[in-house]
Amino acid sequence: MSAFDELMSHQRETEALGAIAGRLGWDQETVMPRGAAAQRGEEMAAIESVLHARRTDPRLGEWLAAIDATALSQADQAKLRLIRKSYERNTKVPAKLAAALAKETSIAQGIWAEARANEDFDAFAPTLQKVVALRREEAAALAAGGDLYDALLDDYEPEATGAELEAMFSALRPRLVALREKILASGKVPEPLAGEFPEDKQLALSEKLARAFGYDFNRGRIDKAVHPFSSGSGQDVRITTRTALHDPFNCFYSTIHEVGHAAYEQGVSEDFLLTPLGRGVSMGVHESQSRIYENQLGRGEAFTAWLYGQMREAFGDFGVADARSFYRVVNRVTSGYIRTEADEIHYNLHVLLRFDLERKIIRGELEVADLPTAWNERFEADFGVAVDKPSNGVLQDVHWSVGLFGYFPTYTLGNVYAGCLNKAMRAALPDLDAQLAQGDTSAATGWLRESLQQYGALRSPKETIAHACGFAPSEGPLLDYLEAKFADLYDL
């Protein structure tokens, strides 16, 4: 075998083992017995030790040095680039630290869930402090004297920097705040849904929505979780959702959102499976898929007209007079506590709060003990509402418990990318709304699959968006879309 063939064979096994580790994570959040948390931590640490050893195997350096990249195809050159980057990053992190992170974050997830249920941040704080300390140690090893937060951000959005994102977010904030103030001052914000919506009917319609957006159940499944997520790649891509008796939108739009993530993974070319190209290129690009499915498609007037009919079939008369009124209810703007339930205007303000706080935490400018106070003060300043309990504040998200520092800003970056993709998609598909009004998303999802999803991690994140759209990504299309949509909804 050539050096390239040996490298690819080694990598294929590493990718397969990584998929197994991901399946353990899915199991932990869905069906694992609560009493198994400590043992699962040991299991996760053990498999992470094996993965770290494979990712830092000295033979990787030898194979990479022996390969003439100029003789390879674009795809094979991209594989080498990603393997080299992974090798260089992983060799900077001691195996003991990698295993400790895997064990601590696995255990921390269960402690967070219990603390959240009991509204008890103090019960979670010591564990979070351990996770933060380990992530700071990892960041220091990776940064080599550079910015600690940027070192962690690179795991989720390669080539991005905190300073770059801060500049983009600063450009977003003024127009978002101005639009929010106009909407709330209009006096036309509709009342939320009232009544009860049985869980079995919610889950049945949730499955119908997943199928409508092209989710392949032959290679996936839907389960329930406290915090909805998507897991896996290629031939095994699973999603979760949640239900709330008085809020079916929580279930429906969580499902559509996670289907967007899953569709990206299911849409990657089979030629790339179990290679470094066989997954989404970044969390920002991943989020662009979930957000365009959920918002520009799922919350658009055309598709909500179809969904209105589906809800009347499922629940009978649920108190909304017509499709236009339903469209307004779906896009109701309010200063709620929960990021995952936020409207399109407030959502990015939720993300900016988390981005600023976690950046300070990793840099050592904010300690875990001071986090609830910092969160509550910032939230009241941004949203005009005081946080009433930890589950509506600092304990609402799972991310920090599992060490995902650097992840949050990719949510807003995904919205920015989705704005760009929507602009390009609408130009390519001028009759799209007529199809969406029939519950047919195939033109839109097909365009996304052909323009972006099939390429996996072939290109860098920015290049992936630019290739799909035909122009470089910026915040302008997102802001233009939001202003046009909500001006129409609220007669601004």
Automatic annotation (TrEMBL):
Catalyzed reactions: Release of a C-terminal amino acid with broad specificity, except for -Pro
Annotated SUPFAM superfamilies: Metalloproteases ('zincins'), catalytic domain
Record bears the keyword Zinc: yes
The EC number(s) this enzyme carries: 3.4.17.19
GO MF terms held by the record: metal ion binding; metallocarboxypeptidase activity
Domain of life: Bacteria
Cofactor: Zn(2+)
Example GO BP: proteolysis
CDD domains: M32_Taq
Keywords: Carboxypeptidase, Hydrolase, Metal-binding, Metalloprotease, Protease, Zinc
Pfam families attached to this UniProt entry: Peptidase_M32
Free-text function comment from the UniProt entry: Broad specificity carboxypetidase that releases amino acids sequentially from the C-terminus, including neutral, aromatic, polar and basic residues.
Family named by the database record: Belongs to the peptidase M32 family.
Protein name as catalogued: Metal-dependent carboxypeptidase
Taxonomic source organism: Pseudoruegeria aquimaris
